[in-house]
Design a protein that fits this description.
65% helix; mainly alpha
Length: 105
């Protein structure tokens, strides 16, 4: 994950955003661990930072997949730190897009 974040940072230094193919690859890199590790991805500190490299809609999609994985695997919030940590991962679901609705299409 750290290497993915470094690669994303390097690419963002040379261009303002990713093309659609690069974005799909980053989403795949982020969602593959959910299939096997479920809630254990919550300990990967670079995961939310990598999500921030995605556009709003893609990061929202990844956030939904994280929530679905946590619910499907009956993840229990044991303390306030767990809640705060999950919020970092699902932050795109808690914000509104900065792009007006008519510009999204």
């Amino acid at each position: 994950m750290g290497d993915c974040l470094q690669l994303a940072d390097n690419l963002l230094c040379t261009q303002s955003n990713f093309d659609i193919e690069s974005t799909k690859i980053i989403v795949k890199i982020l969602t593959i661990p959910l299939e096997k590790y479920h809630y254990q991805i919550l300990v990967i500190k670079s995961y939310p930072d990598i999500m921030k490299t995605l556009n709003f809609e893609m990061s929202k999609d990844v956030s939904c997949k994280i929530i679905k994985s946590l619910i499907d695997n009956q993840y229990k919030l044991r303390d306030m730190n767990a809640v705060e940590n999950i919020i970092k991962f699902i932050e795109p679901l808690l914000k509104q897009s900065s792009v007006p609705v008519d510009e999204k299409n």
